[in-house]
């Protein structure tokens, strides 16, 4: 049982390059999320999606774009990478909820370095 | 003020010790609460949900005080394998988007 799968696991980019991080889940979850985690900052929400074809901004969306063309996939794009985007990126998914009572399930992360 | 605040630690304890972590949250509309565990360079994993009446899972006990907006996690008979960072997590108020707010985490080191 794969759960939430992120690719790639590691990547080094030069400033100004673009790339896409892929998140795939096989749990038929409706909701998906992208976070970044930096030392001393905890997990911060970048963008999220409550269903196929929908996306919304989180706490730190600038410099990122997302797409949810298929229910099982949630893509995070960096159009022009900057050193400030060096971080560990986590994708998560959950069942839909009205009361926020569903836990999120995480992928094992993508370590991204921007030089 | 951060929405979810935790003492970052580290807490250094000997094997077999009992250790308690505390967490406060600022949004009184939050309804759901969790503790996650994160090992070094790994993803966060759900440890347990926290219920109003308090709940226990083996050596782990979670408590919630809604009036004080305070959550706690008690670990009894600590094991070396309990060494990790423990994240206090609350839902984003009354939102139905499933958004969660994560504390920065409390680091636990259990020593032999």
Number of helices of chain A: 0
Main β sheet profile of chain B: 6 strands, mixed
Task: Spell the H/E element sequence of chain B.
Answer: EEEEEEEEEEE
Most extensive protein-chain contact, per-chain counts: A-B, 28 and 25 residues
Per DSSP E runs of 2 or more residues, the count of β-strands of chain B stands at 11
Low-confidence stretches of chain B: none
Q: Work out the strand percent of chain A.
A: over 45%
**In this structure, how is the largest beta sheet of chain A organized?**
7 strands, mixed
Radius of gyration over C-alpha positions of chain A, nearest whole angstrom: 13 Å
Share of helix among residues of chain A? under 10%
Low-pLDDT segments, ≥5 res of chain A: none
N-to-C SSE string of chain A, H for helix and E for strand: EEEEEEEEEEE
Q: What is the overall silhouette of chain A?
A: globular
On the 0-100 scale, what is the average pLDDT of chain B? 93
Helix content of chain B: under 10%
Structural class of chain A: mainly beta
Strand percentage of chain B: over 45%
Q: What is the fold's blueprint, element by element?
A:
The complex is a heterodimer of chains A (115) and B (112).
Chain A: E1 4-7, E2 10-13, E3 19-25, E4 31-38, E5 42-49, E6 56-57, E7 64-67, E8 73-78, E9 87-94, E10 105-106, E11 110-114
Parallel strand pairs in A: 2-11
Antiparallel strand pairs in A: 1-3, 3-8, 4-5, 4-9, 5-6, 7-8, 9-10, 9-11
Chain B: E1 4-6, E2 11-14, E3 19-25, E4 33-38, E5 44-50, E6 55-57, E7 60-65, E8 70-75, E9 84-91, E10 100-102, E11 106-111
Parallel strand pairs in B: 2-11
Antiparallel strand pairs in B: 1-3, 3-8, 4-5, 4-9, 6-7, 7-8, 9-10, 9-11
Explain what the structure shows.
The complex is a heterodimer of chains A (115) and B (112). Chain A is built from no helices and eleven strands. By secondary structure, chain A is an all-beta fold. In chain A, a hairpin with a 6-residue loop joins strand 5 and strand 6. Chain A is globular, with a radius of gyration of 13 Å. Chain B has no helices and eleven strands. Chain B has strands at 4-6, 11-14, 19-25, 33-38, 44-50, 55-57, 60-65, 70-75, 84-91, 100-102, 106-111. In chain B, a hairpin with an 8-residue loop joins strand 9 (84-91) and strand 10. Chain B is globular. The chains are: A mainly beta (115), B mainly beta (112). At the A-B interface, strand 5 and strand 10 of A face strand 5 of B.
